[in-house]
Amino acid sequence: MNDPSVTETVAQASLPRISSTSSVDEGRFIAGTLLGGRYRIIGLLGRGGMGEVYRATDLTLGQSVALKFLPAEAAGNNRLLERFAGEVRVARQVSHPNVCRVYDLGEVDGAPFISMEYVDGEDLASLLPRIGRLPADKAIETARKICAGLAAAHDRGIIHRDLKPQNIMMNKRGEVVIMDFGLAAIAGQLSGAEARNGTPAYMAPEQLKGSEVTPRSDIYALGLVLYELFTGKRPYDAKTVPQLLSQQESAQLISMTSLAADIDPAVEKAIRRCLDPDPSKRPSSALAVAAALPGGDPLAAALAAGETPSPELVAAAGKTEGMALKYSLPCMALTLICVLTAPAIRQHGYAFMHGSLDLPPEVLASKAREHAAALGYPRKPADSYISIVQRGQLISYLQKLPMPRNWDAWLESEAPMMAEYREALSPLDAEPYGKVAEENPPLSEPGMVNEKIDGHGLLREFSAVPYDENPAPAPIGEEALFRAAGIDQKTLKEMTPKFLPQHAADRIAAWGAPHPKIPNTEIRVEVAWWKGRITQAQVVSSWDWTAKPPSAIQTAISQAREWLNIAMLAAGAFFGILLARQNWRKERVDKKGAARIAIFRLLIVITIWIGQVHPLPGTETLGLLINSAGDCVFSAIILWTLYLALEPAVRAHWPHSIVTWNRVLAGRWKDAQVGSHILIGAAVGAGMWTTFEVIKAAAGPKNNLNQGLSLWQLLSTRAWVGSYASVMDESLKLGLIAFFAIFGLRQLLKKDWLAALAAALIFTMLNGDIGSEGDWQGVLVQAGIYTSLYSGLLFVLLRVGLVSTISAVFFINGVNHICLGSDWKAWWAPSGFATIFLLVAIAAFAFWRSVSVQQPAQ
Q1: In terms of Cα–Cα distance, which of 375, 372, 538 is closest to 461?
Q2: Whether 424 contacts 383, CB under 8 Å
Q3: Domain presence at residue 36
Q4: Which terminus of the chain has a smaller tally of CB atoms within 10 A, N or C?
Q5: Pick from 46, 200, 197, 226: which is nearest to 126 by CA?
Q6: 578-594: per-residue pLDDT in tens?
Q7: Is residue 272 situated within a structural domain?
């Protein structure tokens, strides 16, 4: 304690202040003096322990500046000169509206000086004795600005060490500027006597003792300044340093509310935390002090200081109450209307609802087994599998037939749905993941059968491997095939085979006839035998051989979309890994949030696999799960990497958009704001799907039916669960990707509407429907419709955030999975009702939470 800077009395420590207040003493340089051919002196602003400060005009830049000179007697002191140069080096690292900008270091006639921002105002050490204290609301505003400036310095690793009213200026516009970084130092570079430099009256206990000086030492000084700002008095009235240290360690403060009744108790609580003698118990940052002040916006404070707020701070920010009923009721009503009218839209515009499809998948599987037995494969299979798909070529062909189109009659003869059936005398082991397909497992073992039958149970394609190499005891004739295909043999004429055989055959035959119901359409039946057994058969029609190859326009758009996808994936992978690595090293990442997302993605992908896998007997299914585990983990790692790469930038620049997202990650599902954002996304997503359908119906050809309907979820309850796990997975992936893309474009283009438009153009280009028309006029119409709708959607989501984005994507895809028309007794109706119930339940839960009184987070 022998350093002169701390052995002086506290009263003596109050150095003469530097302000814009004029002085009779003109100093070394009189008004009008031209220094270095650049600076013209206007007058002396003040003197301090580190020299004189003059106001001058920078003739080169044409602006007012302040010039700080060392005392003339100190010009030869190498230690002071080094400190002087150090002030420039340190201060130039901080750029913030609430920190005085330092421009340069110069010298005139052997006198070194610093050029800095001129602040036309008064320092707090002069202002407070003159007015007593600041009004409570103005004091809070000023306190926040001081916190923001100090946080900016701390963010650069700089400790001020001399924060006091003399070094805080308030200009004539009420803006606050922290001055004088003459004693500032880089954190971790202070030791010994150097740590005790400063003004004792505004030192922390550890600084007075010469112990380690950290940013929390500045927090202590901040508490002293704020106490004086709100009350007009110093918190301690000690006359000597030992006495001051004793008072600090006992933390005996005069109650602030007893000095000024209008001070909010929260202010006193925040300041008392700053003045805790134990540094570890003080607020962790100046931003935390600002956040603790009444009405504080911690995110705004973080952004003002250029600091990245923590996920916990983001989750704690913002409102906790939900939407007013005047907003939540329309959102709920729009969602209900769109979801409940989806069956009418399906019935009106989708071929599946007009096909008289009375046979559920289980019955179709039984029909397929009967066909196999009739065609010479009567043995009971050990395993079988069935899936159902749309007949895209059929619908596209019928859409091009001339008007009028008798859809009901046509689809009664040719079902819009096809069942793909497989059976074998041993388990269908579809390596490596257990997902049975047309060629997996390959058709190689005796007794294996592949069939395609339409939704009416009529055979359309057949392939089988004979039981053995011996000739069939009773050769199978073509009549059995005609019966299975529902074709009247009398109408057929023998023709030359065109499509078969694809495998070995000792006899092939083909017949043709006009289609019995669809005009200007032919059907062909081709059959191949091997030693008396039918090994292949095919019933093909005009739509199978008249399908046109893609037009030049369609090919060009498809190729452009493919290259765009490849470029985006390659760029995303390359920069994603680099950014994730960089963020991890800088400790900016939300490790917990990324881990929770990865685990959720892993569980979702496993659920999807469970919905798709064809189980095997015994423990063999476990082996399939183990095989799939690598892909499941890899998909989780991809999302984990993406999140580590991009989320910190959003949190640093756009944290308000992920407030509710961070609450979800923290498990606060019942939060009223979370409910509000899910409800907004539900309304936007459901409304967007309905708008797409209405525009498509209005702009498309009259009396037309579509095929765009997923049928996977109709197979079973397990498939339905897997299907909606897939919807959730797509919503999470696309929601995050869309949101991060919007964020990047917003940072680049600065305006929300431009970002929404640019993102809409990208998503329109990636949309598979674009280019389905064969001419440029149709493409442009489609692109205009999709771009307009995407722009509106993205603009709304820009204003709300990530939770609404994911919710909107989920409801777009969820409503699109509703398989229900006017026939509520149909075998697929339970799936449709379950989907509607799911979507309505989610929206209702979100509405309930959005209007609930939300308790503060614990």
Answers
A1: 538
A2: yes
A3: yes
A4: C
A5: 46
A6: 888 888 888 888 999 99
A7: yes
What pLDDT does 833 receive? 96
Q: What one-character-per-residue DSSP string does 547-614 give?
A: PPPPPHHHHHHHHHHHHHHHHHHHHHHHHHHHHHHHHHHTT-S-HHHHHHHHHHHHHHHHHHHHHH--
Give strand pairing partners of 440. 437
Reported as a single tens digit per residue, the pLDDT across 656-670 is 888 999 999 988 888
My answer on whether 185 and 225 are in the same domain is yes
* 249 shares its domain with 389: no
User: Over 50: is that where the pLDDT of 857 sits?
Assistant: no
The residue behind tokens 């003096």 is 33
Q: Are 742 and 797 in contact (CB under 8 A)?
A: yes
Q: End-to-end alpha-carbon separation of the chain, Å?
A: 45
pLDDT at 20: 42
Q: Which of 688, 674, 646, 650 is nearest to 803 (CA)?
A: 674
Residues 6+ apart with CB under 8 A from 28: 52, 69, 72, 111
Nearest residue to 101 (alpha-carbon basis) of 113, 115, 111: 115
Q: What's the pLDDT tens digit per position in 372-389?
A: 999 989 999 999 999 999
**Active-site residue numbers?**
162
Condensed to tens digits (0 to 9), the pLDDT of residues 246-265 reads 888 887 788 888 888 888 88
Mean pLDDT of the chain: 83
Based on the structure, what is the number of domains in the chain?
4
Read off the pLDDT of each residue in 281-307 and give the average, rounded to a whole number.
74
Classify residue 355: in a domain, yes or no. no
Q: Give yes or no for a contact between 802 and 735, defined as CB atoms under 8 angstroms apart.
A: yes
Sheet holding 34-35, edge to edge: 34-35, 39-48, 51-58, 63-69, 111-117, 102-108
DSSP string for 345-365: HHHHHBGGGGS-----HHHHH
Say whether pLDDT at 328 is over 90: yes
193 & 160 share domain: yes
Question: Which pTM value belongs to this model?
Answer: 0.69
* Same domain flag for 384 and 523: yes
Average pLDDT over residues 603-630: 86
Which of 428, 461, 449 has the alpha carbon at shortest distance from 377? Answer: 449
Report yes or no on 450 lying in a domain.
Answer: yes
57 secondary structure, DSSP code: E
More confident residue, 73 or 340: 340
Q: Give the residue numbers spanning the domain of 34.
A: 21-118
Q: 265-274 vs 215-231: helix axis angle to the nearest 10?
A: 150
CATH of the domain at 112: 3.30.200.20
CATH of the domain at 215: 1.10.510.10
